[in-house]
Amino acid sequence: MHTASIIAAGPARAAIDDCWNRIDVRGDGSCPELKQHVHCSHCPTHAAAALALLDREAPPDYLADCTRHMAQAPEDRQADAGSVVIFRIRTEWLALPTPVFQEVAALPAIHSLPNRRDGVVQGVANVRGELLVCVSLGSVLGLVGMAQVAETGHALQHLALRRLVVIGLDGQRLGFAVDEMRGIARFDPTALKAVPATVARATATYSKAILAWKEHMVGVLDEQLLFYTLERSLA
Description:
The protein has 235 residues and is α+β, with helices and mostly antiparallel strands. It folds into 2 domains: 3-71, no CATH class; 82-234, CATH 2.40.50.180. 24% of the residues lie in helices and 29% in strands. The chain contains 8 helices and 10 strands. The strands form 2 sheets. It has a 5-stranded mixed beta sheet with strand order 8-1-2-10-9. Strands 3-6-7-5-4 form a 5-stranded mixed beta sheet, covered by helices on one side. A hairpin with a 2-residue loop joins strand 1 (82-89) and strand 2 (92-97). It is globular and about 65 Å long. The termini are far apart.
């Protein structure tokens, strides 16, 4: 049974504040605890709510609902369904194939390297004891010149959503900062659209397709071309 239905089931049951849907990772990101815990799953408030749900008496129709759910025929899933991880840099929604992603971490301090002022290589960061080279994907894609919203009001609420993404291909590991992570999205390959010829930014050069996802048009990046360019920047 869906968590929301359990929370709402029965007037005698005490209400649980599902803050994770309002101010945390599924909401507007304004929760002050995100700075310390990074994700709701690490927060004591989230853990306490989970224990409260588990300790509750099951609703009267719980077994019937579970029986109906288990009796349903499995959904027909395409064996060749695509899978990408979606993220945002500036105002652009982008994606890379799921196998490329190795880790997502809280954004650490990135220390600049001497004699590297090309704008692509930002420096190195300590990720669980490993010194990882960090690059600016926005510079590669030509997004650094795009207008940025002033860091006040609603924009400040999203600073807690920034993450360091670690990607890897053919033994090469790199990190880059994103302004927001949205996680894995599966799709029918026939849903991919060609990149419009009218798009002149570098994003179009590195995009192999466009994916309509919720209310956004997501540029699916070519991981091979992207790593080739990044490796040349490191040389």
